Amino acid sequence: METIRNWLLPLVLAAGQSALMWTALGPDEKPGLPGLIAVACALSLETAALSRRRQAPVRALAGTLCAYLLGTVAWQDGYIGPGSLVAVYSVAVRCPVPVTVRAVAAAVGVEWVLSAVLEGFRASLLTMALALSAYVLCAGLGEARRQWLGGRLTAARRLAGAEHARRTAGDQERRRLARELHDVSAHHLTSVVVTVDAARRLKGSRPELAAEALSFAARTGAETMESLQRLVGLLRDTDRPGLGTTSADIEELVAGFGRLGRPVAAHMPDDLTGPTAEAIHGIVREALTNALRHAPGAAARVLVRRADGLLELTVENAPPRAGAAHDAGGLGGGRGVAGMRERAAAAGGELTAGPGPDGGWLVRATLPDTVGPRHPSGPVWRRDVLREQRLADPALALTAMVLPVVTALTATEDWSERTRRASVPELIVVTVLLVLHALPLLWRRRAPLASLAAVLATAWLWPVAVAVAPLSPRVSQFLVGGTLVEMLAVYALAAYGRGASTTWPAVIAATFGTASVVTATAAVDGSLAGDPVDGLVVVMVVLLGILLAPLFASLSGAGLVVRRRRLRILANDDFALASSMWHAQRAAEAERHRLALRLREAVLHHTASLVDLAGRGRLDDVATAARAALAAMRDMLHGLCDGEDPGGRLAPSPTAGDLDALCRAQRAAGRDVRVRGLPEAARDLPPSVDVSAYRIVEAALGAGDHGPARVTLRRRRGTVHITMTGVPLAVAGPVAERLRVQVTAGQGRIVFEPSGNVRVSLPAGPAPAPVQEVSPSPYA
Q1: Which residues, 6 or more positions from 7, have their beta carbon under 8 angstroms from its beta carbon?
Q2: Measured between alpha carbons, how far is 194 from 192 in angstroms, rounded to an integer?
Q3: Percent of the chain's residues with pLDDT above 70
Q4: Mean pLDDT, rounded, of the chain
Q5: What is the model's pLDDT at position 329?
Q6: β-strand 749-753 against 361-368: which pairing, if any?
Q7: Where does the UniProt annotation place the signal sequence (predicted)?
Q8: In terms of DSSP bridges, do strands 757-763 and 749-753 run parallel, antiparallel, or are they unpaired?
Q9: DSSP string for 626-670
Q10: Is 345 helix (H, G, I), strand (E, B) or coil?
């Protein structure tokens, strides 16, 4: 599949160029046999170079430029050579910005030098302007793709981390509670046993030790009971963060929620610590988790500020975007707001939550400031958002500026020298108008509606300039090329705006606004195509609007489709992350409850009996009770440390070789599941791939299907191919997202088929050393 993807586009480009060159020109315009051979060599070189555009994009660009030189020299009027545009796009996708800038400069320089040699210096300037516009546009689109892929990779890593936390939450919580339990009380009970045994052995020679031992047992038992009861109380608080929470922990928490591609801003002092910081940590986590569940893709803001010895916390999220809503049923614990109120009250504050003024959700808490400011400057700003495109918007704006200007300058080549010189001031005015008209495209993502409004407003400078300058008709006609800006602004409004409800009225306004501007520019001199403008203006506006309406509607529809797809991807990420976090919290909560129950039933009962017996002076019974309490404590610690492994060791992670046992377990449960391809495909796999293969099949078979299923493993050319059939519940929803994350983390590929089949490819050997020309950053 990867080989087909690498070769398909180059072969299509080669075939298209061959057909176009052969049919578009007459027999007299075609070169001789040597020229045709050179052109065929150029096409072959371009095709071979583009086939390596993903693995070595800079080398691919060098190859396409060499092919362009060879083909253009051999057949100047016939060879097209679009491969260098594709190669520049690939460089921008896979290399950092400095490499992309150098690639664009090299491509433009090659075309300019070649044009200067073949056509002369003056014509080469137009060629250079047109080439610069085309290459910068390709580089901008490639940079946009690179940023999107970088965001997807970050999201996949974040989801993989959440999935790993979900799987290991129970084990980690058991180990943490074992450490706390041992530190809190185990050595107390050991001291009681040692002291009481010593008093019993020496009660004949030193009877005073018995009273001291009883007093020590009563005192230590009471301290142990107090510690255990406090630990049981802490276990009831299932959302309690770790001790020692600081501003950095809260900022990291906010950053984690912001790495999936939506704006999350944080503003807080940098010196928060203590119980108040723990309360803020828990409230922010609960509030942002609720935003993930109920408003996926929406912007959020976390604000903490000091005022009159208090800390005012505000967590606000915008309403869910259209098309991004997700069913969060089953994920909520039903105590979100109540738990936040309890946390604020425990810290000595209060909390309110409810709908915000813009339809979103607003959480406000007032907490005591137990630390106070340390620095006069206090708060620092931090924002984790989807990175703004550094080249895409300027590239589109530059293209919209340059193309009409280049078209105008090219048209002036047919004018006389006298007419050309007389039109220079008018051409400068037209250039300034086109530049002003395209500038609002720089804000098309951040403020698409305002950008479209500015584009439509600056277009009305055209008829004003034609009337005031005045501009001659032979020059003012070039202003019509600026309508490309309206098209880009309409698409941006649909792709980055607030949805169809605001897009379609703006599209209608843009359609007839553009028609009105073009008609007014043409009719400002009092005539339209040589006829008086009496009733023709309205007719022309309507006719031109009718002609533009399908074009603008198509652009708007394409933007809405892209927007809906992007929001659906972000919503799926949010849902999968919230699901993993929820399951991890529930697993940890279950361990806490289990430990609290055992503490009450076993250790606390024996410790209370120990204190009671010590108060009555029954030394022998105190020794028995202390031993029983210590034995119960050790049993608990042994169970916590060993988990479910009766052998006292953690079981090794299952691997692909254990898939047969997994299928046997499924068959024992009543489901017909078979595996083929073992053990040949699973022999000598890298450890990470070995474990990933098992986890992927386990997740797919555990999706909830009950029908027969088949698992097939094949190994070919350093890749393990896993095909799972009969798992329709695994091709969509959270299970599909989990599988996609696992496969992406293992640098593999996954395909979901509507028929209920899942196909996975994982590398079966060490990855080759990366080519140095490709950036080692996560966006590569």
Answers
A1: 47, 51
A2: 6
A3: 77
A4: 77
A5: 40
A6: unpaired
A7: none
A8: antiparallel
A9: HHHHHHHHHHHHHHHHHTT-TTSSPPPPP-GGGHHHHHHHHHHTT
A10: helix
Q: Say which residues have a Cβ less than 8 Å from residue 620's Cβ, sequence separation at least 6.
A: 200
Q: How many CB atoms lie within 10 A of CB 662?
A: 18
The pLDDT value recorded for residue 111 is 87
Tokens linked to 258: 């912001």
Phi-psi map region of 717: left, alpha, beta (phi>0 left; psi -120 to 50 alpha): left
Chosen CATH of 176-238+590-642 out of 2.60.40, 1.10.40, 1.10.260, 1.20.120: 1.20.120
Q: DSSP states of 175-201 as a string?
A: HHHHHHHIIIIIHHHHHHHHHHHHHHH
C-alpha dist (Å) from residue 144 to 16, 103, 395: 27, 16, 11
| CATH superfamily for domain 262-385 | Histidine kinase-like ATPase, C-terminal domain (3.30.565.10)
Please, are residues 770 and 776 in contact by the beta-carbon 8 Å criterion? yes
Instruction: Find how far residue 724's CA is from the centre of its chain.
Output: 28
Sorting pLDDT into bands at 50, 70 and 90, what band is 284?
A: confident
β-partners of residue 350 are: 366
* Cβ contacts of 516 within 8 Å, gap of 6 or more: 541
